[in-house]
Design goal:
InterPro entries: A/G_cyclase, Adenylyl/Guanylyl_Cyclase_3/4, Nucleotide_cyclase, TPR-like_helical_dom_sf, TPR_rpt. The chain has 22 helices and twelve strands. It is an alpha/beta fold.
């Protein structure tokens, strides 16, 4: 480190511009090459350093902080290319180095800029298609209240210019940038898009679509939908990775919400309690932020869904949280969606359907809103099972990698069972098995899968599903099962189980009676 500081003073006298990155770790010598993560991180630190400056990792900082005569300033956790976790970066203050902007602290929702897509075709008439896709992606991303989207007029100022995403990110104060291209060859069209973290230039996600040119407006809608439904979850997942690597006491309200998402998806009492602690802290940190209140409503509806005690009180608490969220931001689609679920659970199915319809009108790209619509339908006295199945399937199509996709599949399962009142119906059996294959599927999904396997004569598989259900909810009994599913159509399903002998079959296979 002392050698580096001495060299920088000598280099200042020359016209050579330099940046230096220093890391500490193991390396692998391969001939004349030096390999390993430690080397890769040093290279990334170099790219983060200002011209004429030095950036070091925390490992180096801990070794030299009391041993060199130089000031060091933290730049915080920085996501760097090809590294799964962010790196804690420090800048060594070197006289004459260009000033560098401190690491952005996420005090609010992330800003995202959709840059003009490049027309790679010789045919300049394709310019309108590229511009149309960008305009539609900008509009549809803005429906997600979790994102702040830079206006089209600002981003189109960069049309035709060299797109240096780091510079553009700084100029627009955008944490993320979407860029892409359109290329036509005959009747074939190829569209690419990338989601990039502006500060590091790291690619978070990339996609490619090949299509045939037919109806140009249908094609534009299809491509817009494909890009939007890929970008939003990938951006959210990246935000959660960043939040997970920071100490809880240094997280902003937004980051606390990101930290809670994996807990919400685990569908067990302990994880829900942990999520609630994070969300209450988020709500306290920023009293004017609606999202933590909407997600506390989500905690309540999941607690009821998995059969925890005192559902009436839990529903009442959740309704308060949902309405508080809407009082702050009445355009927050997930608040309307969670309100719909809780209203349905409280027996107000028609009001729930209205709330779910509002959620979809605000953001038709949000999978949970379609799930809420299907669930509201399920609680009606005469549910439209076609709408139930369609809502669940739309949710799965919009968010196939969603950690709670088992809930989308489960609503399809129940829709088929209500429609056919037959545990042996192929559509029900296929859906029940698919739901149980999802990681994190809750106990009731495994009980439905147990019914399917019992009917198929595979008692071993049925017992395994019952054991899994009991491990997820140790207090589970047949009476619990009857108690949780209290909606009009459930009476028919429970009666079907009794008349077909399925109820006693589950008990014989290991489910406690009471």
């Amino acid at each position: 480190m002392k050698c580096t500081l001495t060299r920088t003073q000598k280099l200042k006298k020359s016209r050579l511009k330099f940046r230096i990155g220093i890391n500490l770790g193991d390396v692998v010598i391969d001939g004349e090459d030096v390999l390993g993560d430690a080397v890769n991180i040093a290279a990334r630190l170099e790219s983060l350093a200002p011209v004429g400056g030095i950036c070091i990792s925390r490992a180096v900082f801990e070794q030299v902080k009391d041993r060199i005569d130089a000031e060091m300033t933290t730049l915080g956790l920085q996501a760097v290319k090809n590294m799964p976790e962010p790196v804690d970066v420090w800048r060594v203050e070197v006289e004459g180095a260009e000033a560098s902007k401190p690491a952005q602290v996420a005090a609010e929702r992330p800003y995202i800029a959709v840059l003009p897509f490049a027309n790679m075709s010789a045919d300049q008439d394709q310019e309108f298609l590229a511009d149309g896709i960008v305009e539609d992606v900008t509009t549809e991303l803005s429906r997600f209240r979790s994102l702040m989207v830079i206006a089209r007029n600002s981003t189109f100022a960069y049309k035709g210019a060299s797109q240096d995403v780091r510079r553009i990110g700084k100029e627009l104060d955008a944490r993320y940038v979407v860029e892409g291209s359109v290329r036509r060859g005959g009747d074939r069209l190829r569209v690419t898009a990338q989601l990039i973290e502006a500060s590091s230039g790291m690619h978070v996600w990339a996609g490619k679509w090949d299509r045939t040119l037919e109806d140009i407006f249908d094609l534009q809608d299809e491509l817009t939908h494909a890009i939007v439904t890929a970008v939003e979850p990938e951006l959210g997942a990246h935000e959660r990775r960043l939040a997970r690597s920071r100490p809880t006491d240094s997280l902003t309200s937004w980051e606390l919400c990101q930290r809670c998402w994996p807990k919400l998806a685990e569908y067990n009492p302990e994880s829900l309690d942990e999520a609630a602690v994070l969300l209450r802290a988020s709500a306290k940190t920023d009293p004017n932020f609606a999202l933590p209140r909407a997600l506390l409503a989500r905690v309540s509806n999941v607690r009821v869904a998995i059969g925890l005690p005192d559902p009436s009180t839990t529903i009442a608490e959740g309704l308060v949280w949902a309405r508080e969220a809407l009082a702050i931001d009445d355009r927050l689609e997930v608040a309307h969606g969670n309100l719909a679920v809780l209203l349905a659970m409280s027996g107000q199915a028609e009001e729930a359907a209205d709330a779910a319809a509002t959620a979809i009108a605000l953001n038709p790209n949000n999978a949970f809103c379609h799930h809420a619509t299907a669930l509201a339908e399920m609680f009606k006295a005469r549910p439209d099972t076609t709408k139930m199945v369609a809502g669940g399937e739309t949710a799965m199509r919009l968010s196939p990698k969603d950690p709670t996709a088992h809930t989308f599949q489960n609503i399809v399962t129940i829709g088929h069972l209500i429609a056919h009142l037959d545990h042996g119906h192929p559509a029900y059996q296929e859906s029940a098995r698919a739901a149980a294959r999802h990681p994190g599927a809750p106990w009731y999904v495994h009980l439905q899968a147990a019914q399917v396997e019992a009917l198929a004569g595979d008692e071993g598989a049925a017992r395994k599903h019952i054991e899994t259900a009991l491990s997820l909810l140790p207090t589970l009994t047949m009476e619990t099962y009857r108690h949780v599913f209290k909606f009009p159509a459930a009476e028919k399903l429970l009666a079907l189980g009794d008349s077909s002998g399925m109820t006693e079959r589950l008990i014989d296979l290991g489910l406690p009676r009471q």
